[in-house]
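Lab channel / #folding
Pinned by the channel admin:
"Please post every new chain as: sequence first, then the C-alpha coordinates as a reply. Keep commentary short and put observations after the output so the thread stays searchable."

First post following the new format, from NK:
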Amino acid sequence: MKTILITGAQSGIGKESAKLFASKGWNVIAGMRNPQLDKTFIEMENVKVVKLDVLNAEEIQAVAKEILDNGGLDVLFNNAGIGVKGCLDATPIDSIQEVLRTDLMGPIQLMKAFIPYFKSKRSGMLLTTTSLSGVVSFPYDSVYAAAKHALTGLCESLYFELKPYDIKVKVIVPGPVNTNFKMKTYNSNQNLKPAKNLSKILIPDFNQLTEAKEVAKAAYEAATSDNDQFEYIVGDVAKDLISQYRSQGIEEFKDTLSKKIFK
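Reply from TO:
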Protein backbone atom coordinates (compact mmCIF):
# COMPACT_ATOMS: atom_id res chain seq x y z
CA MET A 1 0.00 0.00 0.00
CA LYS A 2 1.32 3.42 -0.95
CA THR A 3 1.13 6.37 1.41
CA ILE A 4 0.12 9.94 0.64
CA LEU A 5 0.13 13.03 2.85
CA ILE A 6 -2.60 15.50 1.86
CA THR A 7 -2.67 18.98 3.35
CA GLY A 8 -5.90 20.96 3.57
CA ALA A 9 -7.91 17.76 3.94
CA GLN A 10 -10.54 19.42 6.11
CA SER A 11 -12.66 20.42 3.13
CA GLY A 12 -13.00 20.77 -0.62
CA ILE A 13 -10.34 19.31 -2.89
CA GLY A 14 -8.29 17.97 0.02
CA LYS A 15 -11.19 16.12 1.61
CA GLU A 16 -12.40 14.64 -1.69
CA SER A 17 -8.85 13.58 -2.55
CA ALA A 18 -8.40 11.88 0.82
CA LYS A 19 -11.66 9.98 0.36
CA LEU A 20 -10.75 8.92 -3.18
CA PHE A 21 -7.21 7.76 -2.38
CA ALA A 22 -8.48 5.87 0.66
CA SER A 23 -11.16 4.14 -1.44
CA LYS A 24 -8.42 3.02 -3.82
CA GLY A 25 -6.48 1.32 -1.03
CA TRP A 26 -3.88 3.97 -0.24
CA ASN A 27 -2.69 4.83 3.23
CA VAL A 28 -3.84 8.43 3.61
CA ILE A 29 -2.47 10.92 6.10
CA ALA A 30 -4.99 13.74 6.16
CA GLY A 31 -3.53 17.00 7.41
CA MET A 32 -5.99 19.46 8.96
CA ARG A 33 -5.81 22.67 10.95
CA ASN A 34 -8.66 21.63 13.24
CA PRO A 35 -9.06 17.83 13.14
CA GLN A 36 -11.35 17.87 16.18
CA LEU A 37 -14.01 19.55 14.04
CA ASP A 38 -14.17 16.85 11.37
CA LYS A 39 -15.31 13.25 11.83
CA THR A 40 -15.37 12.31 8.13
CA PHE A 41 -12.56 9.78 8.34
CA ILE A 42 -13.13 8.40 11.83
CA GLU A 43 -14.24 4.97 10.57
CA MET A 44 -11.77 4.65 7.70
CA GLU A 45 -8.98 2.31 8.77
CA ASN A 46 -6.47 3.47 6.17
CA VAL A 47 -6.90 7.20 6.91
CA LYS A 48 -4.93 8.85 9.69
CA VAL A 49 -5.93 12.39 10.56
CA VAL A 50 -3.15 14.63 11.85
CA LYS A 51 -3.10 18.20 13.07
CA LEU A 52 -1.15 20.11 10.46
CA ASP A 53 -1.25 23.85 9.98
CA VAL A 54 1.17 24.70 7.16
CA LEU A 55 1.90 27.99 8.94
CA ASN A 56 3.27 26.07 11.91
CA ALA A 57 6.87 24.93 11.35
CA GLU A 58 6.84 22.79 14.50
CA GLU A 59 3.76 20.88 13.36
CA ILE A 60 5.33 20.33 9.93
CA GLN A 61 8.49 18.90 11.46
CA ALA A 62 6.56 16.74 13.93
CA VAL A 63 4.31 15.26 11.23
CA ALA A 64 7.26 14.67 8.89
CA LYS A 65 9.23 12.90 11.63
CA GLU A 66 6.30 10.67 12.54
CA ILE A 67 5.75 9.71 8.89
CA LEU A 68 9.41 8.99 8.20
CA ASP A 69 9.74 6.99 11.43
CA ASN A 70 6.71 4.86 10.55
CA GLY A 71 7.00 3.55 7.00
CA GLY A 72 7.79 6.65 4.99
CA LEU A 73 5.90 8.41 2.22
CA ASP A 74 5.27 7.97 -1.51
CA VAL A 75 3.42 11.19 -2.40
CA LEU A 76 3.39 14.62 -0.77
CA PHE A 77 0.24 16.43 -1.91
CA ASN A 78 0.52 20.11 -1.06
CA ASN A 79 -3.07 21.22 -1.35
CA ALA A 80 -3.78 23.63 1.53
CA GLY A 81 -4.26 27.21 0.48
CA ILE A 82 -6.06 30.49 1.09
CA GLY A 83 -6.70 33.56 -1.02
CA VAL A 84 -7.56 37.22 -1.03
CA LYS A 85 -9.15 39.44 -3.68
CA GLY A 86 -9.17 43.17 -4.26
CA CYS A 87 -6.92 46.06 -5.21
CA LEU A 88 -3.36 45.66 -3.94
CA ASP A 89 -3.32 49.10 -2.33
CA ALA A 90 -6.50 48.28 -0.39
CA THR A 91 -5.30 44.89 0.85
CA PRO A 92 -3.82 44.89 4.37
CA ILE A 93 -0.19 43.79 4.55
CA ASP A 94 -1.11 41.15 7.16
CA SER A 95 -3.50 39.51 4.70
CA ILE A 96 -0.87 39.60 1.97
CA GLN A 97 1.72 37.97 4.22
CA GLU A 98 -0.74 35.28 5.36
CA VAL A 99 -1.48 34.27 1.76
CA LEU A 100 2.20 34.12 0.84
CA ARG A 101 3.06 32.15 3.97
CA THR A 102 0.21 29.66 3.47
CA ASP A 103 0.30 29.21 -0.29
CA LEU A 104 4.06 29.38 -0.84
CA MET A 105 6.15 29.07 2.31
CA GLY A 106 4.02 26.26 3.75
CA PRO A 107 4.51 24.02 0.71
CA ILE A 108 8.20 24.92 0.59
CA GLN A 109 8.71 23.85 4.21
CA LEU A 110 6.90 20.56 3.59
CA MET A 111 8.92 19.88 0.46
CA LYS A 112 12.16 20.56 2.31
CA ALA A 113 11.05 18.11 5.00
CA PHE A 114 10.58 15.25 2.53
CA ILE A 115 12.91 15.87 -0.43
CA PRO A 116 16.01 14.47 1.34
CA TYR A 117 14.05 11.27 2.09
CA PHE A 118 12.82 11.01 -1.51
CA LYS A 119 16.37 11.57 -2.77
CA SER A 120 17.73 8.85 -0.51
CA LYS A 121 15.28 6.25 -1.81
CA ARG A 122 15.33 7.68 -5.36
CA SER A 123 11.57 7.74 -5.74
CA GLY A 124 8.54 9.72 -4.63
CA MET A 125 6.32 12.50 -5.89
CA LEU A 126 5.67 16.13 -5.08
CA LEU A 127 2.08 16.85 -6.11
CA THR A 128 0.78 20.40 -5.70
CA THR A 129 -2.51 22.20 -6.18
CA THR A 130 -1.73 25.45 -7.94
CA SER A 131 -4.44 27.38 -9.79
CA LEU A 132 -5.58 28.95 -13.03
CA SER A 133 -4.28 32.10 -11.32
CA GLY A 134 -0.85 30.49 -11.26
CA VAL A 135 -0.79 30.61 -15.06
CA VAL A 136 -2.94 33.64 -15.92
CA SER A 137 -3.07 36.78 -13.73
CA PHE A 138 -6.42 38.52 -13.44
CA PRO A 139 -7.23 41.96 -12.03
CA TYR A 140 -8.03 42.17 -8.30
CA ASP A 141 -6.16 38.90 -7.89
CA SER A 142 -2.60 40.17 -7.54
CA VAL A 143 -1.73 38.63 -4.17
CA TYR A 144 -3.21 35.20 -4.89
CA ALA A 145 -1.73 35.24 -8.41
CA ALA A 146 1.67 36.19 -7.02
CA ALA A 147 1.61 33.25 -4.59
CA LYS A 148 0.36 30.75 -7.16
CA HIS A 149 2.72 31.95 -9.91
CA ALA A 150 5.59 31.56 -7.47
CA LEU A 151 4.39 28.09 -6.48
CA THR A 152 4.10 27.05 -10.13
CA GLY A 153 7.60 28.38 -10.85
CA LEU A 154 8.98 26.55 -7.84
CA CYS A 155 7.44 23.26 -8.97
CA GLU A 156 8.64 23.70 -12.54
CA SER A 157 12.19 24.24 -11.31
CA LEU A 158 11.95 21.22 -9.01
CA TYR A 159 10.69 19.10 -11.93
CA PHE A 160 14.13 19.45 -13.52
CA GLU A 161 16.10 19.50 -10.28
CA LEU A 162 14.68 16.23 -8.98
CA LYS A 163 14.47 14.31 -12.26
CA PRO A 164 17.97 12.76 -11.79
CA TYR A 165 16.65 11.20 -8.55
CA ASP A 166 13.55 9.73 -10.25
CA ILE A 167 11.34 12.00 -8.14
CA LYS A 168 8.26 13.18 -10.03
CA VAL A 169 6.92 16.72 -9.69
CA LYS A 170 3.38 17.46 -10.89
CA VAL A 171 0.85 20.28 -10.49
CA ILE A 172 -2.94 20.24 -10.46
CA VAL A 173 -4.30 23.42 -12.06
CA PRO A 174 -8.00 23.94 -11.32
CA GLY A 175 -10.10 26.89 -12.34
CA PRO A 176 -13.08 27.93 -10.19
CA VAL A 177 -14.25 24.96 -8.12
CA ASN A 178 -17.51 24.40 -6.24
CA THR A 179 -16.16 24.29 -2.68
CA ASN A 180 -16.48 26.33 0.50
CA PHE A 181 -13.13 27.97 -0.31
CA LYS A 182 -13.61 31.64 0.56
CA MET A 183 -11.41 34.62 -0.19
CA LYS A 184 -11.32 37.81 1.84
CA THR A 185 -12.31 40.62 -0.49
CA TYR A 186 -11.20 44.24 -0.46
CA ASN A 187 -13.27 45.95 -3.13
CA SER A 188 -13.91 49.63 -3.71
CA ASN A 189 -16.83 51.28 -5.48
CA GLN A 190 -14.54 51.85 -8.46
CA ASN A 191 -13.86 48.17 -9.14
CA LEU A 192 -17.24 46.61 -8.35
CA LYS A 193 -18.48 46.59 -11.98
CA PRO A 194 -15.20 45.33 -13.50
CA ALA A 195 -15.00 42.66 -10.80
CA LYS A 196 -18.54 41.57 -11.66
CA ASN A 197 -17.63 41.38 -15.36
CA LEU A 198 -14.60 39.27 -14.48
CA SER A 199 -16.75 36.93 -12.38
CA LYS A 200 -18.92 36.25 -15.42
CA ILE A 201 -15.81 35.24 -17.37
CA LEU A 202 -14.49 32.96 -14.64
CA ILE A 203 -17.90 31.52 -13.70
CA PRO A 204 -20.13 31.72 -16.77
CA ASP A 205 -22.58 29.21 -15.29
CA PHE A 206 -22.80 28.40 -11.58
CA ASN A 207 -24.64 25.19 -12.44
CA GLN A 208 -21.60 23.91 -14.34
CA LEU A 209 -18.88 24.72 -11.82
CA THR A 210 -16.13 22.13 -11.58
CA GLU A 211 -16.69 19.88 -8.57
CA ALA A 212 -13.99 19.05 -6.02
CA LYS A 213 -14.38 15.37 -6.91
CA GLU A 214 -13.24 16.14 -10.46
CA VAL A 215 -10.06 17.75 -9.15
CA ALA A 216 -9.51 14.79 -6.82
CA LYS A 217 -9.73 12.44 -9.82
CA ALA A 218 -7.03 14.47 -11.59
CA ALA A 219 -4.85 14.25 -8.48
CA TYR A 220 -5.30 10.48 -8.36
CA GLU A 221 -4.49 10.18 -12.07
CA ALA A 222 -1.32 12.22 -11.57
CA ALA A 223 -0.25 10.23 -8.53
CA THR A 224 -0.75 6.84 -10.16
CA SER A 225 0.65 7.60 -13.61
CA ASP A 226 4.23 6.73 -14.49
CA ASN A 227 4.42 9.47 -17.11
CA ASP A 228 6.34 12.74 -16.76
CA GLN A 229 3.33 14.99 -17.36
CA PHE A 230 3.86 18.12 -15.30
CA GLU A 231 0.55 19.95 -15.60
CA TYR A 232 -3.00 18.66 -15.07
CA ILE A 233 -5.50 21.40 -15.93
CA VAL A 234 -8.98 20.78 -14.51
CA GLY A 235 -12.26 22.33 -15.66
CA ASP A 236 -13.46 23.83 -18.93
CA VAL A 237 -12.92 27.44 -17.82
CA ALA A 238 -9.30 26.82 -16.88
CA LYS A 239 -8.63 24.84 -20.05
CA ASP A 240 -10.21 27.48 -22.29
CA LEU A 241 -8.55 30.52 -20.69
CA ILE A 242 -5.10 28.92 -20.49
CA SER A 243 -5.41 27.81 -24.10
CA GLN A 244 -6.33 31.36 -25.16
CA TYR A 245 -3.52 32.85 -23.10
CA ARG A 246 -0.90 30.57 -24.60
CA SER A 247 -2.12 30.73 -28.18
CA GLN A 248 -2.71 34.50 -28.31
CA GLY A 249 0.32 35.57 -26.33
CA ILE A 250 0.22 37.95 -23.40
CA GLU A 251 -0.22 41.20 -25.36
CA GLU A 252 -3.25 40.12 -27.38
CA PHE A 253 -4.75 38.23 -24.45
CA LYS A 254 -4.55 41.17 -22.03
CA ASP A 255 -6.07 43.53 -24.60
CA THR A 256 -8.95 41.12 -25.24
CA LEU A 257 -9.54 40.53 -21.54
CA SER A 258 -9.37 44.24 -20.69
CA LYS A 259 -12.08 45.06 -23.22
CA LYS A 260 -14.38 42.48 -21.65
CA ILE A 261 -13.73 43.56 -18.08
CA PHE A 262 -13.65 47.34 -18.42
CA LYS A 263 -16.42 47.74 -20.98
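NK: The mean pLDDT is 95.
TO: also worth noting, The longest strand covers residues 168-174.
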